[in-house]
Design brief:
Elements lengths: L2 H6 L5 H10 L1 E5 L4 E3 L8 E15 L2 E8 L4 E2 L3 H4 L6 E13 L1 H10 L1 H21 L4 E4 L5 H12 L5 E3 L6 H8 L9 E4 L2 E3 L4 H8 L10 E2 L1 E4 L3 H12 L4 E4 L26 H14 L3 E3 L4 E7 L2 E6 L4 E4 L7 E6 L5 E6 L6 E6 L6 E2 L7 E6 L5 E6 L6 E6 L6 E2 L14
Parallel strand pairs: 7-8, 11-17, 12-13, 13-14
Antiparallel strand pairs: 1-6, 2-6, 3-4, 3-5, 3-6, 7-9, 9-10, 15-16, 16-17, 18-19, 19-20, 20-21, 22-23, 23-24, 24-25
The chain binds flavin-adenine dinucleotide.
Length: 426
């Protein structure tokens, strides 16, 4: 096995599998089951406890096996971080058991288990590099080199590192015959074929929407921080914003990476003494930002900014809006949704010290829940919506506190000379 394959396909130890299981659920698998199929919009992570799963690409009527995951291996790649549709299928070839983690549970694991997070994210990046060639047949773009839209789609797919093949009818006359047998004609170009799906007269925007990478695929359009432009500057802002707990969105009118994405070697970037390709720098930054929960969407241009009812509203080029919810000279940060999606809990310094506040999901009626000495930070809602857990220095160093969702019954849960911070309720 080459060193690249060792990085792409690590074997998790029993201790690591136990950690994964803490965040997911165990499920039995049978021969013939599919964990997911090519083209599906699915973002679950699977660790194999026993049995075996093959990763296959379906193209031209046949299945080509890319790899086989046995006990200790895990199924998944960068799409689990970016939200992209899967371009391979995972089928069970030996019965056994897997642990399944939702995308959210995986994000929690990546944020809390640093060593395991390094192993998983390195494998995801190495797998995408392998898939760029081995799974290229999973998405075929047919279009002339003289078509501006074809050029835009090619740039978009390449900069977004989506495995694909480009078939150019100007150079290969057999492609026209192939189009006819599929019931397509030159007026349908550019065409994208992926799995059983055929997208006619496709644009970079409609393809991105199908792949799951546009604002249409966002769970919500309300953010603390909206960044227009996903070049090195925008991506750096996203890493810092998201790592500080801000709900962060990056919009790029072409594709994430900016000018740096087209640089073959950058020699003068801080921290890379031997240089790094723009492509790799972009991918690392993208994974880093998304690991902290930032959303990255493209192609999507920010057209204007206005203030409405105390909120900043970014209008997109398609005429729709995304809202930056708070607009206050103080720091409003570490927002989290109530389980019913109606309210948001957050930390704010608007009254001096950091305090816990709640507001309605549209930003109205902010109300302070905590007061007194010290800093109150990192609030999280319980899954039944009745309690909020947070960290506070009100008695010296950081300890974990619990209160009812209306701010009453504040109780200290820990009392330790060490720092106890970042609580979460399951
Ligand atoms: C071929 C090449 C090689 C290079 N090599 C080097 C090098 O070796 N060393 C070096 O220091 N620099 C190099 N550079 C320059 C470096 O890439 C830039 O300085 C750097 O990318 C600037 O980063 P940025 O984030 O400020 O802007 P950009 O990289 O320009 O990114 C801006 C992004 O914003 C997006 N955008 C613009 N308007 C909107 C809007 N309204 N809504 C949404 N998105 C929008 C754009 O699509 C773009 O992706 C190179 C540039 C190129 C083209």
């Amino acid at each position: 096995m080459s060193s690249e394959n060792t990085e792409a396909f690590p074997i998790l130890s029993a201790a690591d599998l136990a950690l994964v299981e803490d965040h997911g659920v165990r499920r039995s698998i049978d021969v013939g089951d599919y964990l997911f199929r090519q083209g599906e919009q699915t973002n679950d992570f699977y660790a194999v406890l026993s049995g075996a799963v093959e990763i296959v690409v379906h193209a031209d009527g046949t299945d080509r096996v890319i790899t086989r995951h046995g006990p200790g291996r895990f199924v998944g790649e960068l799409n689990l971080v970016t939200g992209l549709r899967v371009f391979v299928s995972a089928r069970v070839v030996e019965p056994g058991e897997v642990v399944v983690l939702s995308r959210q549970a995986l994000q929690h694991l990546l944020a809390t288990e640093t060593r395991l997070s390094d192993v998983i994210l390195r494998a995801f990046m190495a797998r995408r590099a392998l898939l760029l060639s081995s799974a290229a047949a999973s998405l075929r773009l047919v279009g002339s080199r003289f078509s501006p839209e074809t050029r835009r789609i090619r740039e978009y797919l390449t900069r977004s590192r989506v495995p694909h093949e480009w078939l150019n009818p100007d150079e290969d006359p057999s492609i026209e015959a192939l189009l006819q047998t599929s019931g397509l004609d030159p007026g349908d170009l550019p065409v994208v074929c992926t799995g059983e799906t055929v997208l006619r007269r496709v644009t970079a925007g409609s393809l991105a929407e199908y792949l799951g990478l546009t604002v249409a695929n966002l769970p919500s359009r309300i953010f603390d921080l909206v960044i227009a432009g996903g070049g090195p500057a925008g991506l750096a802002a996203a890493v810092y914003g998201a790592s500080e707990g801000l709900r962060t969105l990056v919009l790029d009118m072409v594709a994430v990476g900016g000018q740096a994405g087209s640089s073959s070697r950058i020699e003068n970037y801080f921290g890379f003494p031997t240089g790094i390709s723009g492509d790799e720098l972009t991918q690392r930054a993208l994974v880093q930002a998304e690991k902290f929960g930032a959303h990255l969407t493209s192609p999507c241009a920010a057209a204007s900014l206005r203030e409405e009812g105390g909120h900043l509203v970014v209008r997109l080029s398609d005429g729709s809006d995304v809202v930056r919810l708070t607009n206050n000279p103080a720091i409003d940060t570490m927002g989290g949704w109530s389980p019913d999606g109606n309210r948001i809990v957050f930390t704010s310094t608007r009254d001096g010290n950091a305090r816990i506040y709640v507001m309605n999901a549209d930003g109205t009626s902010p109300a302070r829940l905590t007061s007194g000495p010290g800093q109150d930070v990192t609030p999280e809602w319980s899954s039944d919506g009745k309690k909020i857990v947070f960290s506070s220095t009100r008695n010296g160093n950081f300890e974990i506190y619990l209160m009812s969702a209306d701010g009453t019954n504040q109780t200290r849960l820990t009392n330790n000379p060490a720092i106890d911070i970042l609580p979460d309720i399951y």
